Amino acid sequence: MASAVLLLLSSPRPLHRTGPSGLLCSPRRRALLPAPGPAQAPRRLLAAAPPRASNNNDPSGAVEAPDRLVAAVAYLYPFLDGAHHGRFLLAQFPFFSALLRPLAPAARLFHSSPLTPFLLFLTLYFAVVRNQQAFSRFVRFNAMQAVALDVLLIFPDLLAQSFAPSGGVGFEIFQSLESTVFLFLLVCLVYGGGACLLGKTPRLPIVADAAERQVM
Asked: At 124, is the secondary structure helix, strand, or coil?
């Protein structure tokens, strides 16, 4: 009896069953999990960012409304600075006076101090034209055209101070020159301001190329 117990205790553990290939198989079946492949990040549908409106010579009207307004207001500066050249035309044709009456408050504010035109000149050039971070190229280009147009007023101003006949043919020529300067400024105001409000870039004669060279 004792020997039989010893034989049972000393008997080796049963071997695992062999499979068809002769390899030892585990007695327990283990679920074969597929080898983990490379992690696949979920695909995200990235919405395409809308194209940024170009403020550079864009005739499609994509310029933002604040830029249009600021650019249009800039053309008031040379007109108000040279409005005195229209004194003969306004006296002969009162229609122009009635047409420009809404600008009377701006004209009084502009001429409220002798320093106002100079301060506005510095503001337009250094705070707008040279300020690429705060203003778009659309605004800076139109502001530069307004500044260049005002610089051109130096020549008719010098002519009016040095050559002011009191009568005769010379006086008629002087009146015609003064009225021409005023009408040119008025056309620039209407054309430049109107184009800016529509989101288009106006190119004024004489000053457009100079403005292009100054604005990067």
From this structure: helix
| Cβ atoms < 10 Å from Cβ of 1 | 5
Phi, psi of 15 (to 5 degrees): -75, 155
Q: How far is the C-alpha of 93 from the C-alpha of 86, rounded, in Å?
A: 10
> Of 2, 4, 27, 31, which is closest to residue 15 (Cα–Cα)?
27
Two tokens, residue 193: 């301001």
Cβ atoms 165, 175 nearer than 8 A: no
Nearest C-alpha neighbor of 97 from the set 191, 110, 108, 88: 88
Domain boundaries, the chain: 62-215
Residue 103 has pLDDT above 50, yes or no: yes
Confidence of residue 168 (pLDDT cuts 50, 70, 90): confident
- Are the beta carbons of 66 and 204 closer than 8 angstroms? no
What is the predicted pLDDT for the residue at 165? 77
Residue 174 in tokens: 């002087």
